[in-house]
Amino acid sequence: MIDVIDRILVSEEEIVRRSKELGKQISEDYRKKGTTPIVIGLLKGSVPFLAEIMKHIDLDIEIDFMDVSSYDGAESVGDVKINKDLDKSVKGESILLVEDIVDTGRTLKEVRQLLFNKGAADVKIVSLLDKPDRRVIEINADYVGFEIPNEFVVGYGLDYNQKYRNLPYIGVLKPSVYE
Ligand code: XMP
Ligand code: MG
Question: What is the C-alpha separation between 49 and 52, in angstroms, rounded?
């Protein structure tokens, strides 16, 4: 464990096990509906989780990525800026959006709206982590890996100043690092 990590909240083994469960559930749900989703990862945080969970989705999926950032400051509401758009049209498609964490809920609300504006027929959300205590927008992921307390976490895609995304676990960052 590197010295900026206070403690490990979710181990690599737990993430792999939970991804298998979620992948199986997602496969069953879409099979029942008779649709196949386009799996869309939000860059960059969702990459390790998407790579893990996609192996356990037993459907004929395609994957794509999007990079968005919110305008001005963390507390901003309103539009998101698209830094990297999708490669293909999603008109009429079912979308499974993959996120690293749902915090205030602002990102998911904006991205979901964006996808509906692009003509998506259906948008479901799978998030590795959920911090329900921090929610300001009423939105929930359809599939959640782990609910976590209100602490700043890094690893498995999640960063602090673009670092620590490569850690193979979810760890609580020592507050001394950012205070
Ligand atoms: P909202 O508030 O829009 O935020 O739901 C989602 C985005 O906020 C970031 N975020 C975190 N990143 N550790 C991180 O590394 C955290 O504990 C954390 N909480 C929120 C993240 O980019 C996520 O996509
Ligand atoms: Mg993010």
Answer: 5
Kindly state whether residue 177 falls inside one of the protein's structural domains: no
Task: Give the count of domains, the chain.
Answer: 1
On whether residue 120 sits in a domain, the answer given is: yes
Question: Considering the domain boundaries, does residue 5 fall inside one?
Answer: no
Encode pLDDT of 119-175 as tens digits. 999 999 999 999 999 999 999 999 999 999 999 999 999 999 999 999 999 999 999
Domain that holds residue 86: 12-148
Instruction: Choose the catalytic residue: 58, 103, 122, 130.
Output: 103
DSSP-derived pairing of the beta strands 153-154 and 143-147: unpaired
State in Å: Cα 27 to ligand 2 middle: 24
ipTM confidence: 0.92
Do the domain assignments include residue 162?
Answer: no
| pLDDT tens figures, 77-112 | 557 889 999 999 999 999 999 999 999 999 999 999
99 neighbors 53 (Cβ within 8 angstroms)? no
